[in-house]
Amino acid sequence: MKNMLSERIATSVLTREEVMQNMPVIMGGTCAVETKEQTLKMARTLVKVGVDTMRGQLWKPRSSINSFQGVGLEGIDWLRQAKEETGLRIATEIVDKDHIDPTKGVIDILWVGSRNMQNFELLKALRRDDRPVILKRGFAATIEEWLQSADYIGRERVILCERGIRTPVDSTRFTLDLNGALVAKFDKGMPVLVDPSHPAGRRDLVPNLAYAAIAAGLDGVIVETHEDPDNAKSDNAQQVLPEVFEEMVGKIRSIHHLMNS
Ligand code: PEP
Ligand code: MN
Questions:
Q1: Whole-model pTM?
Q2: What is the model's pLDDT at position 8?
Q3: In whole angstroms, how far apart are CA 217 and each of 16, 169, 210, 220?
Q4: From the CB of 70, is ligand 1 less than 6 Å away?
């Protein structure tokens, strides 16, 4: 299943500099890692689609204790196999400082989720690692607070991710704050990705939000995609099918090219 793309990326890590130079970053994968079979199948799909980084979330911070909490460390071997077979880079959210060491050697990019943007002990613990960290914006955080959280980790290792904020608008799950993302990028000099899946909360809006982010000049997207979204264990309304994701990847590259020509 290895191809030239996967061989190229197997030897590299996604650095903050690369995000700024090699636009656009396109990251895909399920909301949560569910089974080994699903993980391997998704990895193969992502390589076929031409994407080089997979989101593989092992721990799921959920609003309700009754919701699926993630497979935890059990899934690290599934991600290791996916990485070894395909050469994909793997990104995962950690929710506790005890998750930093066990993910070394498999997880190339760590991310801090929205709900933990101001978990300062976690951010301070991340300072001791050397991997790039995607810092998702807290859904009530100002741009200044987002940047202050980045400083806890060390701004030079941080890639920001706008994922929607809470506003009076309740017709979608969150409101994608492209204005704020642009301020973080252009005024503060940070690389900024956009997650169009969580603000939309529904899969039909995800492609257009992703296109808007790239047209706005942001650095890339993280998109939730699932082979059987209706039966996903989390966020089943917003995950797009792989064929939709494939079409998105083509359009994102075209929009990016147009914006930079
Ligand atoms: C996610 O990416 O699946 C996630 C939980 O995102 P957020 O932290 O932005 O809610
Ligand atoms: Mn999700």
A1: 0.92
A2: 33
A3: 16, 24, 11, 9
A4: no
